[in-house]
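As a warm-up, study this chain.
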Amino acid sequence: MIENLFEYDSVMLEEGGNALKILDQTRLPSLESFITLKSESDFIDAVVKLKVRGAPAIGICAAYGIGIILKNLNLKSIPLVIEEFKRIKNSLSQTRPTAVNLTNALDRIERRFNEVLEIPDISIEGIYRELLTEADAIKKEDILSNLSIAKNGLTLLKPGYKILTHCNAGHLAVSRYGTALAPVYLAKSLGWDIEVFACETRPLLQGARLTAFELTKSKIYVTLLCDNMVSSLMSAGEINAVITGCDRIALNGDTANKIGTSAIAIMAKYYKVPFYIAGPSTTIDKNSVTGDNFVIEQRSPDEVTDLWYSERMAPVGVKVYNPAFDITKAELISAIITEKGIFKFPFDFQGK
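Now compare it with the structure written out below.
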C-alpha cells in the first residue's frame, strides 16, 4: 500500500454538498491555499485558470461541480433542473477541450442524471444527492485506479532508478497519489531509493512549481532542470526511464500530454531510454482512432511573454505560439500503464 504522504486531496467535497474545496495550484509552491467553489463562474474560473488541473482532477471537479451548481441555484421544478443541467454540462465541457477525462466524467454524470429522472416521485433534492453520490464514486474509482497504476508501473522499475518526468502527474493532478508519480510513491513506501528529475515545463512551470513541490514535501529526492536540458542529461546516461502522465489517448496509442512531451519521447527513442505513459483508462478516447484529430487547446500569449516576469520579457506585439499540449506518436511510447494493465506497441485498447 502507498503511504499517504499528504493530509489533503486536491479536490474535496465540503460537508453538506454545497461547495467543493480545492487546493489553489496557482499559489504553489509559496502558499498552500484552499478555496471553495459554489457557482458556475467559480468552477469555470478554477478550471480555465488552472487552480485545479490534471486531467483526472479536472474530471472529478466537473463531476462534483454540476451537482453543486444545480443545488445552489435553488431551482423549483424538475423541468428547470433538466434545462439547467444541459446548459451547465455544455458550459463546463468547453473549459479544457483536450483533457478527455472532463468529457468522460460529465457524460457519466449525464447518464446517471437520466437514470435518476426515471425514479418514481424523485425529488429535486433527491436528484442532487444522486449526482453527488455519482461524483463520489468517480473520485473513489480514481483513487483505486491510482493504486493499480502504481503497482503496475513499479514492475517496470528497479531500486536505484533515475526517472525523468514532465509537467505534473502526481498527487496534485488526480484524486490521490498520482499517475506518473504513483509508482514513485509506492517505491518510497517500499524503501526503494528512486530519484526523480523534473522538467520545469514551460511556460506554466508545472514541473518547477508543482512536481518539485510535492516530491520535496514527500521527501523524495528530486532534481529540477530546464526543458532544454533533457538531451544533455540523457546523453550522459543519467536517466533509466521516462514516465509522464496523459490528457488523452487514442485507440492506436497516440497520446496528448503537456507541451514538450513529444520532444522528450523523441530524445528517449534516440538515447534508448524507455518512455512510459501512465494514466487511467478513462483517459482513453474511444472515439479517436489516432491522435490526428485531437483538439489542442491554445492558451493566452501572456503566459509566455509576461506571466513569470516582473516586467514583460518579449517585444510588444510579437506573435506567440502557445499550445497547451502536443501529440506523442504511439511508436515512440515503450508502454502505456493503466489500472487495467501495461500495454505495449502496437496498442490495442478495444474493450478496455
